[in-house]
Automatic annotation (TrEMBL):
Domain 4Fe-4S ferredoxin-type residues, every copy: 2-30
Record's function text: Ferredoxins are iron-sulfur proteins that transfer electrons in a wide variety of metabolic reactions.
Cross-referenced InterPro entries: 3Fe4S_ferredoxin, 4Fe4S_Fe-S-bd, ET_Ferredoxin
Protein name (database record): Ferredoxin
Lineage: Bacteria, Bacillati, Bacillota, Bacilli, Bacillales
Cofactor(s) required for function per UniProt: [4Fe-4S] cluster
Keywords: 4Fe-4S, Electron transport, Iron, Iron-sulfur, Metal-binding, Transport
Length: 79
Protein backbone atom coordinates (compact mmCIF):
# COMPACT_ATOMS: atom_id res chain seq x y z
CA UNK A 1 0.00 0.00 0.00
CA UNK A 2 0.91 3.64 -0.37
CA UNK A 3 0.47 6.44 2.09
CA UNK A 4 0.26 10.08 1.15
CA UNK A 5 0.33 13.48 2.76
CA UNK A 6 0.33 17.05 1.45
CA UNK A 7 2.92 19.56 2.57
CA UNK A 8 0.71 22.60 3.01
CA UNK A 9 3.74 24.83 3.48
CA UNK A 10 4.61 24.41 -0.20
CA UNK A 11 1.20 23.71 -1.78
CA UNK A 12 0.26 26.61 -4.04
CA UNK A 13 -3.42 25.65 -4.21
CA UNK A 14 -3.17 24.92 -7.90
CA UNK A 15 -6.04 22.46 -7.74
CA UNK A 16 -4.54 19.74 -9.90
CA UNK A 17 -4.52 16.96 -7.34
CA UNK A 18 -8.20 17.09 -6.51
CA UNK A 19 -9.03 16.98 -10.19
CA UNK A 20 -6.70 14.05 -10.75
CA UNK A 21 -7.58 12.11 -7.62
CA UNK A 22 -10.89 13.41 -6.23
CA UNK A 23 -11.27 10.49 -3.86
CA UNK A 24 -7.87 11.12 -2.31
CA UNK A 25 -7.47 14.91 -2.17
CA UNK A 26 -9.76 17.76 -1.24
CA UNK A 27 -9.08 21.37 -0.27
CA UNK A 28 -9.30 23.35 2.90
CA UNK A 29 -10.90 26.78 3.16
CA UNK A 30 -7.73 28.37 1.79
CA UNK A 31 -7.67 26.06 -1.20
CA UNK A 32 -4.71 24.11 0.09
CA UNK A 33 -4.85 20.41 -0.59
CA UNK A 34 -5.29 17.76 2.05
CA UNK A 35 -5.72 14.02 2.10
CA UNK A 36 -9.35 13.09 2.63
CA UNK A 37 -8.69 9.60 3.97
CA UNK A 38 -6.99 10.55 7.20
CA UNK A 39 -7.31 14.32 7.60
CA UNK A 40 -3.90 14.74 5.99
CA UNK A 41 -2.02 12.76 8.58
CA UNK A 42 -0.60 10.23 6.13
CA UNK A 43 -1.54 7.35 8.38
CA UNK A 44 -4.24 5.56 6.35
CA UNK A 45 -3.28 3.37 3.38
CA UNK A 46 -4.60 4.46 0.01
CA UNK A 47 -6.68 1.66 -1.48
CA UNK A 48 -5.32 -0.16 -4.51
CA UNK A 49 -8.26 1.16 -6.53
CA UNK A 50 -7.06 4.73 -5.95
CA UNK A 51 -3.36 4.14 -6.40
CA UNK A 52 -3.17 5.09 -10.07
CA UNK A 53 -5.01 8.34 -9.36
CA UNK A 54 -2.69 9.01 -6.46
CA UNK A 55 0.45 8.50 -8.51
CA UNK A 56 -0.87 10.68 -11.32
CA UNK A 57 -1.52 13.47 -8.81
CA UNK A 58 1.89 12.94 -7.24
CA UNK A 59 3.62 13.28 -10.60
CA UNK A 60 1.48 16.25 -11.60
CA UNK A 61 1.88 18.46 -8.55
CA UNK A 62 3.81 21.52 -9.75
CA UNK A 63 5.32 22.23 -6.33
CA UNK A 64 6.16 18.65 -5.33
CA UNK A 65 3.93 19.04 -2.29
CA UNK A 66 2.43 15.56 -2.45
CA UNK A 67 4.51 13.05 -0.55
CA UNK A 68 4.05 9.33 -1.15
CA UNK A 69 5.57 6.47 0.81
CA UNK A 70 5.13 2.75 1.28
CA UNK A 71 5.14 3.29 5.02
CA UNK A 72 2.90 5.58 7.09
CA UNK A 73 3.76 9.16 7.82
CA UNK A 74 3.47 10.25 11.40
CA UNK A 75 0.68 12.74 11.38
CA UNK A 76 2.48 15.86 10.26
CA UNK A 77 5.27 17.14 8.06
CA UNK A 78 8.03 19.54 9.04
CA UNK A 79 7.92 18.60 12.67
FE1 LIG B 1 -1.28 21.84 -3.94
FE2 LIG B 1 0.08 20.31 -5.55
FE3 LIG B 1 -2.42 19.80 -5.11
S1 LIG B 1 0.22 22.52 -5.41
S2 LIG B 1 -3.36 21.79 -4.74
S3 LIG B 1 -0.77 19.71 -3.61
S4 LIG B 1 -1.36 19.55 -7.04
Amino acid sequence: SRYTIVDKDTCIACGACGAQAPDVFDYDEEGLAEVILDENTGTSPVSDALEDDLLDAFEGCPSDSIKVSSSPFHGALNT
